Amino acid sequence: MAGSTSGRCRVCTANDQETLIEQLAEQVWEWRRERDFPHWAEAGEFWQAKFREHALLFVNAARG
Questions:
Q1: Are 55 and 31 in contact (CB under 8 A)?
Q2: What are phi and psi for residue 60, nearest 5 degrees?
Q3: Is residue 42 part of a domain?
Q4: Which of 3, 52, 57, 64 is the most exposed place for a label (fewest CB within 10 A)?
Q5: Is residue 45 part of a domain?
Q6: Which residue range forms the structural domain that includes residue 23?
Q7: For 6-60, what is each residue's pLDDT tens digit?
Q8: Is 34 exposed, middle or buried (0-12, 13-18, 19+ CB in 10 A)?
Q9: Domain assignment present for 37
Q10: How many domains does the chain have?
């Protein structure tokens, strides 16, 4: 997984869940961003909140 260190999963080893969620949400937004979509910082609270929710769901599912 991107962002892993020493072959260990970043999701599994993160101590700061809020930062992990924020970084995952931003990465997914940037990967999915299309031509006219703004960058994460200008995405607006609605979209940032939605992407954070999805990132949290992913983390919780990955951690089992």
A1: no
A2: -65, -40
A3: yes
A4: 64
A5: yes
A6: 15-63
A7: 677 888 888 899 999 999 999 999 988 777 889 999 999 999 999 999 999 999 9
A8: exposed
A9: yes
A10: 1
